[in-house]
Amino acid sequence: MTEEIYTKENGDYLQNNPTWHIEDSEWKAKQIIKLVERNQLKPKSVAEIGCGAGEILNQLHLKMPKDVNFSGYDISTDAIEFAKQREKQRLIFMHENLLEIPENFDLLLMIDVFEHVEDYLGFLRSCKGKAKNTIFHIPLDITVQGVLRNRLMYGRNAVGHLHYFTKETALATLVDSGYEIEDYFYTKGAIEVPKHTLKAKFSILPRKLLYKLNKDFAARTIGGFSLIVLTK
């Protein structure tokens, strides 16, 4: 499986994810703003590589200061068709490879992206010089429960994950790619994002309890968490 699944000609990703995860975008934007504010960042230009349907940038455009310019880039025609509907003043989307254009930015967003990229280490190193700071959101797919239930194959087949991480391997990957870790925290998608199935709703309470007792243990065992990381 390669980046071909995101093309209009292939259509597999759109078929498996018809909303392109728009429903999670407001929550993800809140995590980004939390990290930006607690590190007192004041970017004037924000770019997102692998912007998908563009709703994360749209939410940031609504909530961040009015002097910030936002740019979204994606290799998928399907994604950009969604995103173009959200364009407005200070918010643009382009069907381009960000690495092939000369612009640099104050802040680069890579939200649930590099686990999809075949040569993820080379990709991360290539992105290193595009911004003063980079924020990553990284799914933590390697968990005891995930391995026992074979959930890694779900991530591979449904959403195109080619690589899988724990907190420790995610941070080590960024360091090995030349980034300096400034700040990070767990994001609690399995707890905070609205659930639609009865099984998912029942899983919220044990996750909350275990997370309160020991965050790292909860992330390694029952899972349902991601990592958001600020780097320079």
Helical content stands at 40-55%
DSSP strand tally: 7
Our estimate of the beta-strand percent is: 15-25%
The global form is globular
Following the backbone from N to C, one meets helices and strands in this order, namely HHEHEHEEHEHHHEHHHHE
Strand order of the largest sheet: 3-2-1-4-5-7-6
Q: Stretches where pLDDT falls below 50 for ≥5 residues?
A: none
**Average pLDDT taken over every residue:** 90
Number of helices: 12
SS-derived structural category = alpha/beta
Radius of gyration: 17 Å
The termini sit apart by: 31 Å
Q: Mind describing the biggest β-sheet?
A: 7 strands, mixed
Explained architecture:
The protein has 232 residues and is of the alpha/beta class. 41% of the residues lie in helices and 19% in strands. It has twelve helices and seven strands. Strands 3-2-1-4-5-7-6 form a seven-stranded mixed beta sheet, with helices on both faces. The radius of gyration is 17 Å and the shape is globular. The chain starts with 11 loop residues before the first helix and ends with a strand. The model has no long low-confidence stretch (mean pLDDT 90).
